[in-house]
Amino acid sequence: MIDPLTRRRLSYRTLYVCIALVLIFIRLMPINHVPGGLPGPDLTLALTLAWVLRRPEYVPALLIVAVFLLEDMLFWRPIGLWAVIVLGATEFTRAREQALRDLPFALEWALVAVLLVAMMLVKRLVLLVVLVEQPALGLELFQMLMTLAAYPVVVLVSRVAFGLRRAAPGEVDAFGHRM
Question: Which ranges does the record mark as transmembrane (predicted)?
């Protein structure tokens, strides 16, 4: 028999992978046949940041790398670059989870904005150093703003639909360990 804590973690990890796969599938569908449209938000990134800021144990590093490596391959991005950048940002927040736990949402949103800007700058700098053609800066900025605008919606859906909330200060798991 599996204990409730492990079952809960595994169910949220499975849910994260399923949501990410659905989002990837939707992005691959040929919905808009007009070339040169504006990019939408990166919902997979917003979901990952929201879940890592709320319950980092539900989204382990290996799972994040696997999802974003799959995205890199399917969307013809430099393989591994975005996965490593997202991993760095999520590990940065994971290391500060205790300090960020009781952060008001406005400051959390500001932190996500800073992370998105830093991630975009690192990506552009690496692509500049290795002399790879880059997407237009305006399109990347627009996608970053769209992702930032979608972040509160992702947090709300995660809370209402999936019951994902932050661990309260002093909260303990089923074994009495502090979370």
Answer: 12-31, 61-88, 109-132, 144-162
